[in-house]
Structure to design on (364 residues):
């Protein structure tokens, strides 16, 4: 799947660029894109290092355990094959909590850790249902406080940047629920 | 109230460090160990990120994104979706930085109290970059077969677009 996505992007880009006469721009994009990626990675280092560090402090003094105890009943419902492993449960809980607080940078290390722990339990290249649902929850992103968008609105002179909050909540919950429902349905129907 | 979001980060930091002090747990060495893990994670996701961002940049530059947008615009008009929102709708699942830049441009062009801007903001706040997150998470553990992940996630994105339009229409 990943093969198809990436190669699709590559081939379509080349063909389109040749047809529209932008071959030179495309060549530039190859180098500029990869450079931009590395710039992004370098800027990620700071946030990732700091937040992973702070979250490790949280883990050591028992905060993550406490949070995951509270969220555990809900998590087990959604991720049935994770019930017996508290490490995965903790990582998932912290990832979701961090996302809800709008702390995407703090959520990512936990998300990747959860994926790694889930992948260690199986030995194949096929995504498990728990993995799929976890990724879907991350892509649906339910934020209690949409900090970035509010920031942008404020900079552009909106009277009350946070007035879109109820709309955002309704929309993100709706999209999350629908995506998860779709996942549950596909689980039975999709044969691959 | 407007700045509640600004307090999220300082509060979290304060609570965690304060807790650790009160419970007499180590602070600096878990900080360093966690930071080290964080850096290793960045190193692990580097290949995926480089490959993906380059591919998306190429896709945008080649004009394929514009073609896709103009393809969908008439269909969008038909169901009552404002055609100015179509590029954002299509870009959001694909690129976080790109959609933020697009949002910024829209806020510049249209009055920030207008429906267009409201819907755009709600759309961006309510969803996340599907392709990027999916490939990042699965790529980091070398899982190739995603099964129905994209299908379900994209359904979520479509729902986000629909509901963002409906809620703004009713609430404002």
């Amino acid at each position: 799947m990943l093969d198809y996505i990436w190669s699709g992007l590559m081939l379509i880009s080349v063909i389109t660029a040749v047809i529209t006469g932008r071959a030179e721009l495309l060549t530039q994009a190859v180098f500029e894109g990869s450079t931009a990626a590395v710039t992004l990675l370098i800027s990620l280092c700071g946030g990732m290092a700091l937040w992973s560090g702070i979250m490790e402090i949280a883990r050591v003094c028992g905060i993550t355990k406490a949070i995951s105890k509270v969220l555990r009943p809900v998590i087990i419902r959604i991720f049935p094959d994770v019930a017996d492993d508290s490490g995965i449960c903790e990582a998932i809980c912290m990832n979701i909590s961090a996302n809800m607080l709008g702390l995407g940078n703090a959520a990512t290390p936990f998300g990747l850790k959860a994926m790694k722990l889930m992948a260690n339990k199986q030995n194949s290249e096929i995504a498990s249902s728990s993995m799929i649902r976890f990724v879907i929850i991350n892509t649906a992103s339910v934020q209690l406080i949409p900090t970035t968008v509010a920031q942008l609105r404020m900079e552009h002179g909106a009277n009350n940047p946070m007035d879109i909050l109820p709309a955002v909540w309704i929309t993100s919950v709706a999209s999350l629920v629908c995506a998860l429902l779709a996942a549950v349905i596909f689980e039975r129907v999709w044969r691959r | 109230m407007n700045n509640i979001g600004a307090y999220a980060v300082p509060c979290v930091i304060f609570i965690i460090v304060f807790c650790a002090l009160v419970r007499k747990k180590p602070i600096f060495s878990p900080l360093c160990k966690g930071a080290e893990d964080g850096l290793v994670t960045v190193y692990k996701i580097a290949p995926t990120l480089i490959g993906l961002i380059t591919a998306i940049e190429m896709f945008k530059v080649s004009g394929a994104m514009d073609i896709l947008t103009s393809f969908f615009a008439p269909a969008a008009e038909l169901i009552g979706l404002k055609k100015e929102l179509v590029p954002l709708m299509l870009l959001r699942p694909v690129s976080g930085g790109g959609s933020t830049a697009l949002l910024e441009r829209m806020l510049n062009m249209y009055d920030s109290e207008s429906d267009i801007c409201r819907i755009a903001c709600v759309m961006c706040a309510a969803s996340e970059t599907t392709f990027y997150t999916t490939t990042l998470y699965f790529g980091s553990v070398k899982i190739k077969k995603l099964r129905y992940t994209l299908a379900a996630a994209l359904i979520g994105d479509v729902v986000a677009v629909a509901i963002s339009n409906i809620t703004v229409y009713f609430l404002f």
